[in-house]
Amino acid sequence: MPLSVRYGQRLAKRLRVPLQILDIDRRGQGKAADRFVRDHGDASPDYLIPQVFLEWSDGQVEHLLTGFSEQVPRTARAWRDLLSSDWLRSVRGSERP
Amino acid sequence: MTSRGALPPALRAALTSPGGRCYRHCDRPIRTRRIESRLPGLWYVRACPSGVVSVTIYAEWTRRDPTRSVQHALRDWTVPPSRVRLRDLRLATRHGPELGRAAERLLATARGRRGVRVVYWRVYPFRARDKTERRLFVCFRRAHRSPVFFVSASKAKGPRCPVCTRGG
Questions:
Q1: How many domains does chain A have?
Q2: Are B41 and B61 in contact (CB under 8 A)?
Q3: Interface check B108 vs A, CB under 8 A
């Protein structure tokens, strides 16, 4: 299972929200992903993946994480830091997204 | 205090990423080398001992997208400058929670809730017209004040820097 799918599942579980995955290599999903990245993420002609977003119940979208281009273990470290962050603790302590 | 766009030590530490090996070239350890420019942020080049560049990174504490400035700086260092294409520059925003506790708290208290914008320049290996594989190399010799980026055959034993024109 890809690293960010695994950590994404963990994050979704902690937030008690569903996880939606958009695969850029699938035609229909790729266009939706492009739109998401263009509107809310780190847009570049050949943008970085993964990009992780949180959609709130009021429709607001928050960009959480973009993969590190240096090496995969660096992205894994970022996921671990995100999962143990003050931000996550505060979100879990407030209303559900 | 840090100048506008410069990264304080806590952010620098959070963004550095030592280690790694040269992927599909020599498998030797990657060295991370810092370079200077007129831009306020921090530059790193990650390259193997032969000079094959894995990725060049620029990080700035700012709201703006520094991609165009990065392209401009890289073009000054690259032979030919046209090798620095926008499609090879990729933007990433670092908000704080993904950077560890110290960086998260620093960014949370920062005026205007600025994030860190990072631009990566990664040139993937490609085939030339003669079908040989080419890669991006960097030369750090003292013969020139700035790094020199150039493309050469992947298997070249001594890729020739076009500025100092010495074999490696």
A1: 1
A2: yes
A3: yes
Residue of B nearest to A43 (CA): B91
Rounded CA separation A49/B24 (Å) = 21
Contacts for A18 with CB less than 8 Å, ≥ 6 apart: A12
Domains of chain B: which residue ranges?
A: 9-124
Please check whether residue A97 lies inside any domain of the structure: no
CA dist B114 and B2 (Å) reads: 14
Our CA-based measurement puts residue B29 at a distance from the nearest CA of chain A, in whole angstroms, of 13
> Which tens digit of pLDDT belongs to each residue from A18-53?
999 999 999 889 999 999 999 999 999 999 999 999
- Interface predicted TM-score of the whole assembly (ipTM), two decimals: 0.93
Q: What is the pTM for the complete model shown? A: 0.93
Residue A96: inside a domain:
no
Contact at CB, A82 and B97, closer than 8 angstroms: yes
